[in-house]
Amino acid sequence: MRLGFDVGGTKTDAVAVAPGGEILARLRRPTAWGPEGVIATVLGLAAELAAAVGIRVDEFDSVGIGMPGQVAPGGAVVTHAVNLGVDELDLARALGIVLGIPVRAENDVKAAAVGAYALHGRAHGTRLGGLSASGAMAYLNLGTGVAAGFVRDGILWRGVHGTAGEVGHISVDPHGPLCKCGQRGCIEAFCGGGAIAERWGRPSALPVLDVFDAADRGDPEALVLRTGLAHGVASAVRVIVLSADVDAVILGGGVTALGDRMLSLVKGDLAASAAASPFMRSLRLADRVELLPPGSPAAAVGAALVGASATEQEAVAHG
Amino acid sequence: MRLGFDVGGTKTDAVAVAPGGEILARLRRPTAWGPEGVIATVLGLAAELAAAVGIRVDEFDSVGIGMPGQVAPGGAVVTHAVNLGVDELDLARALGIVLGIPVRAENDVKAAAVGAYALHGRAHGTRLGGLSASGAMAYLNLGTGVAAGFVRDGILWRGVHGTAGEVGHISVDPHGPLCKCGQRGCIEAFCGGGAIAERWGRPSALPVLDVFDAADRGDPEALVLRTGLAHGVASAVRVIVLSADVDAVILGGGVTALGDRMLSLVKGDLAASAAASPFMRSLRLADRVELLPPGSPAAAVGAALVGASATEQEAVAHG
Predict the structure, then answer these.
(1) Per-residue pLDDT for chain B (319 aa), expressed as one digit of tens each?
(2) Window B:204-243, CB contacts with A under 8 Å
(3) Which one of 3.30.420.40, 3.30.1490.10, 3.40.50.1820, 3.30.1300.10 gives the CATH number of domain B2-114+297-318?
(4) Considering only Cβ atoms within 10 Å of each terminal Cβ, which end of chain A, N or C, has fewer?
(5) Which of A135, A163, A245 has the CB atom closest to B245's CB atom?
(6) How far apart are CA A240 and CA A263, in angstroms?
(7) How distant is the Cα of B187 from the closest Cα of chain A, in angstroms?
């Protein structure tokens, strides 16, 4: 049995996962601030999950922790997790001795990609916990920033320097909006939640929702932003499928809270490129896009799978 | 020992490759037209190569054939090879009985990617014939059209439908030139040899060279085309590295005949995005780009490797 955590800026999602892939227990708690806060949050939830499934914490096989920051491949050191007040944190050192089990960390988007593949890849010829199944999928995270994770034949592709999936900073318009990265027309400048909030510029708790509602009322500025958002997401889907030819692009992250109101516009943009181009039409991009179900534990489940060693991952895949 | 063929629109490049990866013999002959012409060209070269290395044709282990067309994964049926006058051709049926050895076909760009990895991946921590070496590389073909092949840990990634690497039809400018595919601002519309020849519109045997020379003389139209070409290639490099995080992007194909005159402009465009963006700067894209050496037998060698069965590929990698 394994523990998986998705440590977010406000909440932490935690699961206990059986060898066969089923979620035996799931809990969500607020994330406490800073390195000590993150550690306390994880330790508290680990104890609660152990109690919930009726074993001791050190009887879990492993723990995996997804966090919004940079993680060296195969390690447990998280850096630049600014939303959590964490500059650098060695989770193996901080948690390994206390928990008594192996600790792995992973960038939260990459963890979500692994979990989305395991949980939702079934519709694409894969199976639950299907780490050895054939096929390829991308998870596109539309949060404050925009990034993707690629899973192929059950294996996460991190890239040679760990920067695979940084599609948010591909420019798709040399005259497009200025991105905070410094380039113009980045995909993230069109459809990142942070960029939209900044361009909208009006105080709001839910700026993307406000933009959609204002666009419905005919606000010209909101219409430009909403059309750009759909174009940015559709462009990311085109980049992902034309380069990697994945079966499915699963959309998740805060911006997808708008659900079908957003997805229908994205599919509309994809339909426009398909209408212009027989080649694009042949790729059936709109059929490959779907939303991560609301409340999906993908990131926590993916973290639990990442937490397992390569040998243990094999065991799950064949278990 | 294996045979590998790169059947091009005008010439066919053929090699005999030893189990360890060395090229034992290489020959180039004009390609004859149509299905019968292709078969006759391959059979003639197979006999010549057998004589050159001193064995019978049926003593080769396998034959792999790269062609500019669509090839179903793991098969030998080539379709839509319009430059060769081939609508559909089952190479296993046409050649297998005559040659008496297993036949595989592959799209020529994908074959070149496999060969470029085997021949030129060494500089990136891989080794000759390094099919089991760790690392990832892309080959970007700048011919009449533009497409890429991805090789990762020695394995070609074809995608779930065989369309991985179709980066030529990613739009990077909604107001860019019209692509023959129907979209605007496709990478191929900027840097494909066919698109440049058409936009230049003046009769020429070497339109890309003419554009570069005219741009050197200050011709305003040529300057626009040349700047666009560099932008298109650099955009493809950005798409490839930001999505797949490969070690190296090796540029090949007819448009690269201009060598450093082209590469320096591509690196200039990459330097401009690096200057604008600390994130892009951190990726060191210009350092990852290189030219396939002129006259490289990458496509024929890659075809020979594709021709081997999976088991034989393993043997090469460890041989």
Answers:
(1) 999 999 999 999 999 999 888 999 999 999 999 999 999 999 999 999 999 999 999 999 999 999 999 898 778 999 999 889 999 999 999 998 899 999 999 999 999 999 999 987 754 544 333 333 458 999 999 999 999 999 987 889 999 888 999 999 999 999 999 999 999 999 999 999 999 999 999 999 999 999 999 999 999 999 999 999 999 999 999 999 999 999 999 999 999 999 999 999 999 999 999 999 999 999 999 999 999 999 999 999 999 999 875 334 434 444 3
(2) 231, 235, 238-240, 242-243
(3) 3.30.420.40
(4) C
(5) A163
(6) 17
(7) 10
Helix/strand/coil percentages in chain B, nearest 5? 50, 25, 30
CATH topology for A2-107 is Nucleotidyltransferase; domain 5 (3.30.420)
A244 with B239: Cβ contact below 8 A: no
Angle at A84 between CA A81 and CA A88, to 5 degrees: 45
Which of B183, B239, B276 minimises the CB distance to A243?
B239
The values of phi and psi at residue A95, to 5°, are -115, -30
Distance from CA of B233 to the nearest CA of A (A): 13
User: Is B148 in the A-facing interface, judged by CB distances under 8 Å?
Assistant: yes
Q: Does B107 touch chain A (CB under 8 A)?
A: no
CB contact under 8 A, B163 and A235: no
CA pair distance B216, B201, nearest whole angstrom = 18
B127-291 maps to which CATH number?
A: 3.30.420.40
Chain A residues with CB under 8 Å of B243 CB are 148, 150, 164-167, 170, 239-240, 243-244
A107 interface with B at CB cutoff 8 Å: no
Query: ipTM score here?
Result: 0.91
Decide: residue B264, CB within 10 A, 0-12 exposed, 13-18 middle, 19+ buried: exposed
Closest CA to B96 of B87, B88, B105: B105
DSSP class of residue B19 equals T
The domain locations on chain B are 2-114+297-318, 127-291
Whether domain A115-291 has CATH 3.30.420.40: the reply is yes
